[in-house]
Write a structure and sequence with these properties.
CATH class of the largest domain: Alpha Beta
CATH superfamily of the largest domain: Vaccinia Virus protein VP39
Strand order of the largest sheet: 4-3-2-5-6-9-7
Radius of gyration: 20 Å
Distance between the termini: 48 Å
Number of helices: 9
Strand content: 15-25%
Structural class: alpha/beta
CATH architecture of the largest domain: 3-Layer(aba) Sandwich
Largest sheet: 7 strands, mixed
Order of helices and strands: EHEHEHEEHEHHEEEHHH
Shape: elongated
Helix content: 25-40%
Number of domains: 2
CATH topology of the largest domain: Rossmann fold
Length: about 260
């Protein structure tokens, strides 16, 4: 049949109820199989086809899947011949947008690259109608966290700046083969209007710089990005985890020319 590859972070969903629940939840998004332009769907990491077989039951779907493991590509094509020509044999991290125009993403994402996949969603944000995906529970919680939460960070701010995040439900380890050593959760992203920042590049730089030294006050963490007079604002006495997304956006209007454009240097 097929083998499991730990190097690719493969944990295959075997609970049919969970698989159906994820696919059926697409009906609560802008994805509409019968409507041209809204019927495009990309599945990430189909593996052995736990979600795929239910997706293929949706009439009118314009479907593609991206799968890095050649063995799984061959297995999927043999099991469902209709998939011939619909599977992209590559890593999602290396691919261009799968469709021209708007599309939806769904998947049981490889946990070892799940954060990178989320940043890929940011790259595609102009055309992404929604994303529904399975993540390690800790990553899902970080994405959904709000200011004041100890896991609120770069991922929380940058994703929520462009997407509404819905923490949908959690999934037990025994729903997978092999059972992962971590808990899992399904979240959904839907586009939202971007906050009123001056410049997207500066917004990303500010957020990453602030959280790079999250235990320091903002005044010390982002000092290279602002003139001294601006840093006297009481807001800079807070730590990064205390600022809202709109706080970060407002601060971009006060940024000067960065003394050091590398937030991790």
């Amino acid at each position: 049949m097929y083998t499991l590859k730990k190097s690719l972070g493969q944990h295959f969903l075997r609970d049919e109820n969970i698989a159906r629940k994820i696919v059926s939840s697409l009906s609560d998004t802008p994805f509409t199989a019968g409507e041209p332009g809204h019927n495009r769907l990309l599945e990430v990491g189909p593996g052995a086809g736990a979600l795929t077989k239910y997706i293929l039951e949706i009439e009118g779907v314009d479907f593609k899947a991206v799968e890095l493991d050649e063995e799984k590509v061959l297995y999927l094509q043999k099991t469902w011949p209709v998939l011939q020509g619909k599977i992209l044999h590559k890593s999602i991290l290396d691919m261009d947008k799968p469709f021209d125009g708007p599309f939806t993403v769904v998947g049981n994402f490889p946990y070892n690259i799940s954060t990178q996949i989320l940043f890929k969603m940011l790259e595609w944000k102009e055309d992404l109608l929604s994303m529904t995906g399975m993540f390690q529970k800790e990553v899902a919680q970080r994405v959904a966290a709000h200011e004041g939460n100890k896991v609120y960070g770069v991922l929380s701010v940058l994703i929520q700046a462009f997407f509404h995040v819905e923490y949908m439900f959690e999934v037990h380890e025994q729903c997978f083969t092999p059972p992962p050593k971590v808990k899992s959760a399904v979240i959904r992203l839907r586009p939202r209007p971007a906050p009123a920042f001056r410049d997207e590049r500066q917004f990303f730089l500010l957020v990453k710089t602030a959280f790079n030294q999250r235990r320091k006050t903002l005044r010390n963490a982002v000092k290279p990005l602002f003139e001294d007079a601006i840093l006297q604002d009481p807001l800079f006495g807070k730590r990064a985890e205390q600022l809202t997304i709109d706080d970060f956006a407002r601060l971009t209007w006060k940024m000067g020319k960065p003394a050091n454009p590398n937030p991790h240097a």
